[in-house]
Amino acid sequence: MWSPRTPDPLLALVDMSETRRRKGFSSESLAPARPSLEAKDLVAIQVCRLFYDEQLTKIEIGNRLGISRFRVARLLEQARESGLVQIEYRDRELLHPDLAQALSQRFGLRLCQVVRGPAAIDSAGAELSVGHVAAAVVSDLLARRDVFGLGWGRAVAAVVEHLPLRNDLDIDVVQLAGGSARVAFGIDPSELAHRAAARLGGLLHALHAPAFVETREIRDALLREREIVDTVRLFDSVTLAVLGIGALYPAGDDSPRSALSIEGVLSPVALKRLLKSGATCDLILHAFDREGRFVGAELEDRLVAISVEQ
After folding, report:
1. 179 and 190 in contact (C-beta within 8 Å)?
2. Is the model's pLDDT at 51 over the cut of 90?
3. DSSP secondary-structure letter at 281?
4. pLDDT computed for residue 201 by the predictor
5. Which is nearest to 46 in space by CA: 83, 99, 7?
6. DSSP code per residue over 36-78
7. C-alpha angle 208/212/213, rounded to 5°?
8. Which has fewest Cβ within 10 Å: 93, 122, 123, 285?
9. Beta partners for residue 246, in sequence order
10. Do residues 127 and 158 lie in contact, with contact meaning Cβ atoms separated by under 8 Å?
């Protein structure tokens, strides 16, 4: 009933009533729409409008209304507790903020988003939902001159698919692992890095090498090749990376699995040996067990990818 910019709410009410009387409104029409609103709430509402709508600080509000910043803080808190002001987040249909907060506290995460989905959602639908949210987060986090690293897999592909078109970043896009001719079209790391660089207007640094080679000697020789050296040198400079976590064996018939197990990147013998060591998942080709310990040391010597330490 008054403008939050008016210093005195009572005068604003009087002025408003006088105007309505001149226009022919009856006294009944001037009755408040919400009779439960008490006079003591009027200052609290004005404080809330100044704080939330005009984004003034507590000190600025106190100076404008002639009250202390401590009273301003108390009025804001009481308004929320009483329901006079309600804050609603419109992301709850898509995200699960309570679970995200619990995960952040449990594992000390600086930023966590959990995508909400029905229990029966198929893996493809889940990947698209996660990709949509993750791409928005990545776009917000990216800054000029960043070195953006990219892994591989279906979830990473979904993120790349939803990245907005940018041309203001001047970033480097780095492929973080070698590829494989056995990987399905659309999730190969070289292809994903190329698509990401195109969408973000970045400079592509591809890794022209297989993910796994036969021996450590072959791996070491590859890492001395000039084109590969130029990319690998950027691993230490990566400022933001998108990586997927793949399950090495299915929890059910329809559950997603890592490209390492379903695409044949690893031989059946190597995969069997890896599972026997306790491996359950892989993070950009590095296998780890249910306790988060990296296993499969014999494969690490044949792997062309960013290291666990990096």
Report:
1. yes
2. yes
3. E
4. 95
5. 7
6. T--TTHHHHHHHHIIIIIS---HHHHHHHHTS-HHHHHHHHHH
7. 90
8. 93
9. 282
10. yes
Of residues 85 and 34, more confidence is placed in 85
Q: Could you tell me the end-to-end alpha-carbon distance of the chain, in angstroms, rounded to an integer?
A: 59
For Cα atoms 32, 34, 38, give the angle at the middle one, nearest 5 degrees: 85
In terms of DSSP bridges, do strands 281-283 and 286-288 run parallel, antiparallel, or are they unpaired?
antiparallel
Angle, CA 119 vertex, CA 113 and CA 120 arms, to 5°: 125
- 């029409």: which residue's tokens? 29
Token pair belonging to 141: 């986090």
> In this predicted model, what pLDDT tens digit does every residue of 259-288 receive, in sequence order?
666 666 777 788 888 888 899 899 988 999
For residue 257, give both structure tokens. 């699995």
d(C-alpha 217, C-alpha 198), whole Å:
34
Beta-carbon contacts of residue 90 (< 8 Å; ≥ 6 apart): none
Residue type at 245 in one-letter notation: I
pTM of the shown model: 0.69
- Poorest-pLDDT segment among 17-31, 88-102, 133-147, 245-259: 17-31
